């Protein structure tokens, strides 16, 4: 069932196989065996992609319910054995790290009776954990498939450029153009799945006839900032929320290209019925 659900969520055998860390042929064989056992097609093949059938949709919903129940039962047994309160499993995108740190004491006070567990990861990864019932909620960028989730927007952050003051060529600049950016090594934020600011910035370079030097891309904005702090002579393009306390040796400038803002949101499964939990998380964040 886990293999089937992963295929359904990824829409491709090859993508699901990579996620499951297994070869594609045995995964395809497992799917064929499952369809033979059930006596019906669960997917319609459309080139390299798979379109789930009506029977597949039904089986997916039931399989996810069973997998969530198994995971919940496992955790309940472990919790009883350890004699601790029920865990509150929270996901956090690295782009929300600074905002989370500022609110942790409030979160701890509101959920003192529960054991807090935090998973830090790229929003695409957190989306998979939420879908699989391995997280109760996550502070992250809006999911790629919002129809499966309840999304509560919390904060918006514009994209900015951070550069060392020692870059004398840009000493008098009040903002940075694409040409300015293309003249220096770049540290760029990129989500592991889907199209975001990284892809749109590269497209803008291409349309302007410019070739940027991307020294590194990462889903962890704090890592990019750490590279600047340790002396990297380049420019980081990150959300403004990442640059708090960067220090006087750096400048934070707007960039002259339209990029989507970063929208930090509280995300939970659409079927989540613990309204008290969601209200508490929102209160902790917004107060």
Topology summary:
Blueprint: H1 2-10, H2 13-20, H3 24-38, E1 43-46, E2 49-52, H4 54-82, E3 87-92, H5 97-110, E4 115-120, H6 123-131, E5 137-140, E6 149-157, E7 159-164, H7 178-182, E8 185-189, H8 197-207, E9 213-218, H9 221-229, E10 235-239, E11 250-254, E12 262-269, H10 275-286
Helix pairs in contact: 1-2, 1-4, 5-10
Structure characterization notes:
With 287 residues, this protein is α/β, with parallel strands linked by helices. It folds into 3 domains: 2-66, Arc Repressor Mutant, subunit A (Orthogonal Bundle), CATH 1.10.10.10; 85-154 and 263-286, Periplasmic binding protein-like II (D-Maltodextrin-Binding Protein, domain 2); 159-260, Periplasmic binding protein-like II (D-Maltodextrin-Binding Protein, domain 2, 3-Layer(aba) Sandwich), CATH 3.40.190. 42% of the residues lie in helices and 24% in strands. It has a 5-stranded mixed sheet with strand order 4-3-5-12-6, with helices on both faces. β1 and β2 (49-52) form a beta hairpin. The longest helix has 29 residues, at 54-82. The radius of gyration is 22 Å and the shape is globular. The two termini are 41 Å apart.
């Amino acid at each position: 069932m886990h293999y089937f659900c992963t295929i359904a969520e990824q829409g491709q055998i090859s993508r699901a196989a990579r996620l499951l860390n297994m070869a594609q042929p045995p995964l395809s064989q497992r799917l064929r065996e499952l369809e033979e056992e059930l006596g019906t097609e669960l997917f319609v093949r459309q080139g390299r992609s798979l379109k789930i059938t009506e029977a597949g949709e039904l089986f997916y919903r039931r399989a996810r319910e069973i997998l969530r129940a198994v995971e919940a039962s496992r955790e309940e047994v472990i919790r009883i054995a350890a004699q601790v309160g029920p865990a509150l499993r929270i996901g956090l995108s690295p782009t929300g790290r600074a905002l989370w740190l500022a609110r942790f004491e409030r979160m701890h006070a509101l959920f003192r009776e529960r054991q807090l567990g935090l998973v830090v990861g790229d929003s695409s990864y957190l989306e998979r954990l939420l879908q699989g019932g391995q997280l109760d909620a996550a502070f992250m960028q809006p999911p790629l498939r919002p129809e499966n989730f309840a999304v509560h927007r919390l904060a918006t952050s514009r994209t900015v450029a951070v550069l060392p003051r020692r870059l004398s060529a840009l000493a008098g600049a009040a903002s940075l153009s694409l040409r300015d950016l293309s003249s220096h090594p770049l540290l760029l934020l990129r989500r592991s799945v889907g199209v975001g600011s990284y892809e749109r910035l590269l497209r803008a370079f291409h349309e302007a006839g410019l070739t940027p030097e991307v020294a590194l891309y990462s889903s962890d904005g704090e890592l990019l900032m750490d590279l600047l702090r340790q002396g990297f002579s380049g420019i980081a393009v990150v959300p403004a929320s990442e640059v708090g306390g960067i220090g006087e040796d750096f400048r934070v400038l707007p960039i002259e290209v339209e990029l989507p803002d970063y929208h930090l949101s509280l995300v939970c499964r659409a079927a989540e019925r613990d309204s008290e939990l969601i209200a508490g998380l929102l209160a902790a964040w917004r107060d």
